[in-house]
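QUALITY CONTROL LOG
STEP: pairwise intake check
CHECKER ROLE: data steward
CRITERIA: each record must contain a sequence immediately followed by its structure tokens, with no blank fields

ENTRY 1 OF 2
RESULT FIELD BELOW
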Amino acid sequence: MNLSKYETLAAVMEQGSLTTAARELGCTQSAVSHSIDSLEKELGFPILKRGRAGVSLTAEGERLMPAVRALLGAAEQLNQTAASIRGLDAGTVRIGAFTSVAVHWLPGVLKEFQADYPNVEFRLLNGDYHDVEQWLSDGSIDIGFVNVPCAVDCECIPLMADRLLAILPLNSRFASYPKFPLVECEKEPFISLLESSDHDARRALEAAGVKPNVRFYTKDDYAILAMVEQGLGMSIMPELLLKGRTDRLLILPLVPEARRVIGIAIAAGSKAGPATRRFADYVVRYVNNQAAG
């Protein structure tokens, strides 16, 4: 079976447009369009709807995509295994990560891994917890960094317990406090991630029986940091995310304490390709070394 048409379809859905997919694949837009048209004729039904806002799947395409992603994932596992047998250690590992991991862990892990296995390629997708779980579920990625427990049925390895901290403007009235009482979130202007993303703060607040005085919602972690720096309110963020961003913020431990557990989820579990499994091992080692150092 020629997988190129299915790879093109997956790229189009990942990028959301024919033009961007063509750039990603290193070909022309007309070549991408021709590949999709040919696949639709081969299958006997339309897959994509084209519009000014980009492309989307037809009902038939929605039913097809899980099988397409499973097919491409199985092909990649086959390629990795064959490469390992030949001693080439090659393949492509698709990774999904949220902001703090993408910024503070992934560059270091990738540098170490590439030094030992230069023939392995990577595709990185950045999003929030919900995005990563969705990518794991639909087969868009091989490995995802997740908030444990993970809602997706896959092999999950806990990596680190990460403290949640209160972040406030430097001139906050809490500047003399050794810790921040969570109950004060009911009075202070609170800046929140969208509900689909804000698992950490929401769990901590719900466990304490606190309803925050939310004034702003955003999906961007660093937008929250900038807004707090400007005195627009306070928020609750993981310690890893705050690394290197402490000079213009008042950061206090919470009362009661709260933590998130970061883990790495392997979509195919024991059936994952050698390069995928080896990369997971490097992640575990890197995080353990960071904690020890």
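ENTRY 2 OF 2
RESULT FIELD BELOW
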Amino acid sequence: MSAQPEHDHGVRRLAGAAELLALTAPGGYARAEVQPGRVDSCWAGPGDALGWVVPSRRVPGAAHLVGLGEPRAAAALLRALLERHGLQIGSVTLPRDADRHLGPAYRLAPRNDWEWFVTTAEPPQQPREGTVHWLREDAVGDIGQLLEAWSGRHHAMPGDEGVLRWAGVREQDGRLLAVAAHTEHRRGVPHLASVATHGDVRGQGYGGAVTAWLTRRLLAEGAECVTLGMYSDNDVARRLYLRLGYRVAEHFTSGRLVRAAAPGG
């Protein structure tokens, strides 16, 4: 990177995470996700585009770019980092539909649209909240089995980095009915992940109960906000989170970045 220009065609390398965060709004996605000291580089691009680069979890040895701003501007930032600054970016998270502006040279495979939610207020009390408790460390196996069986697109498992604890509901016979993870990508900003319900009890309020209970506890412990994410095709989950007081703050597209084959290649 030392041989690359620090300022090029509207793209500027920032001094670090502190400068990036100074350019973002309080309560926004960057304030919840950027971990100072764990970011490889931060960038400002055309228009309002901002981005930061971290190691990719999808592509070993490559980088992951998170971009913010107007979709065309975010796409222009990505292209500049790839083509003029030589970054080896293997996967991306960009504003919704930014990848549509990359041109024919690049595509995302798979391409996943998702939404980032945030709340600062206690949710309405849910009928089954009284059944929710913190799960003990010996529940690791049960949590994993529930997620593998009933939540095909979960993003947190016991033992993963950033997973602090789990809340859940058990039947009297010990069967685990619902779970949710308290994770933190940035210290002090809790993020709910892997909210899942056993198929035998779906539609009975357990997902809402565990989400509301965990949100309530985290706010009571002093968190200024609680966040969560969901795939955009999950209309049932969206209705639930909106009913519990969450609001959609960002729309994203994520995926592995694939270069199109050269003509005749």
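INTAKE CHECK: passed for both entries
DESCRIPTIVE NOTE, ENTRY 2: The mean pLDDT is 93.
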